[in-house]
Amino acid sequence: MGAEKRWLFTLxxxxxxxxxxxxxxxxxxxxxxxxxxPTPIHHGPHHPPSFAYYIYGGRGDxxxxxxxxxxxxxxxxxxxxxLGAEASDDERMALAxxxxxVPAVRSxxxxxxxxxxxxxxxxxxxxxxxxxxxxxVLLKVDSGxxxxxxxxxxxxxxxxxxxxxxxxxxxxxDLNFIDHTSDLGWKEEQRIQPxxxxxxxxxxxxxxxxxxxQTRPTPDAFKVFTGSSWVTLSREFLEYCILGWxxxxxxxxxxxxxxxxxxxxxxxxxxxxxxxxMNTTVNSDLRFMIWDNPxxxxxxFLNLSDFIQMAQSGAAFARQFHRDDPVLDLIDEKILxxxxxxxxxxxxxxxxxxxxxxxxxxxxxxxxVRPGPLAKRLEETVSNLVDDMKSQxxxxx
Length: 397
Known about the structure:
There is one protein chain. By secondary structure, this protein is α/β, with parallel strands linked by helices. The chain has a domain at 51-183 and 223-345 and 371-390: Spore Coat Polysaccharide Biosynthesis Protein SpsA, Chain A, CATH 3.90.550. 37% of the residues lie in helices and 12% in strands. The strands form four sheets. A five-stranded mixed β-sheet has the order 3-2-1-4-9, with helices on both faces. Strands 5-12-11 form a three-stranded mixed β-sheet, with helices on one face. A two-stranded parallel ribbon has the order 6-10. It is globular, with a radius of gyration of 24 Å. InterPro entries: GLCAT14A/B/C (IPR044610), Glyco_trans_14 (IPR003406).
């Protein structure tokens, strides 16, 4: 074979090998991103419920929020992730890039990062403004979800999304899981009667709340309720709060604008003063927390010594955790079956799981759920809470 023929043969062989490698890469890229056309999501009473998650944090919380997002991800749900105004635009953009790189998110488009952040002030009403804004966005972008769930960067799930959907499939979708009481105790004098101003509502810089020199009497035009700021609210109730065919939500929003820790009283007071919704309250936040005795402002940080108690609690979520605490890895391994950098698998994931392959890089019918071993505990918890609600023993009182 002459030199020219050998050169042509080498060129042809190299081109053929390159085309083969490109084909293999294209095939892998196609298969790793699931179906090019997402399977349709079916909503309604004959299908599993869907959840809208509002997950938020502050400066330095990007990776915590992304890890939490992966832990609670399911194609049937909707997600809004929010880094407060104190976080940098670079951090916010990096979070958006991380979310967009998740194969299922690229296909289903069911997660967003807030591009215009809200300013969150500790103990102020700006947190309620941010939550209402998030609910408004989620109502606008998705017409199918049933419940709205708030999570902070220091929270983590104790069940899979299949478990959660399975447990909530057996209850009415107008129920609201919100810890509440009208027994104000010491809070009446220390939180309800003082008048506070939240600079986060009108200042561009971060600032703490400040107090007025005078106090005000406890309202008598409506009854004040208080409780946990962590809620699971029905779509119908949030539409009432935001679209407002009644003036009650707006009137109470103006009042709680000057109440310390407004997120511990606004939704509670609206729902328990509304004849239409007061009988839909289930008195629980579905969270596992451990408090000091006497309790301080926040629950204690959970660690490996609390794992068994958490797993057996029948709660849906737990708080609070230190950043990258080892107990989170244990929850991933023993409860969520979640690999590092991967979403928590469910019945919708169809790829073969291995140390190098994400089981949720391919998917089948996303309208099917497969509850795991902890689903029974959550189902029993929810069932007992609903039975208690029906007995009127612990409802808006």
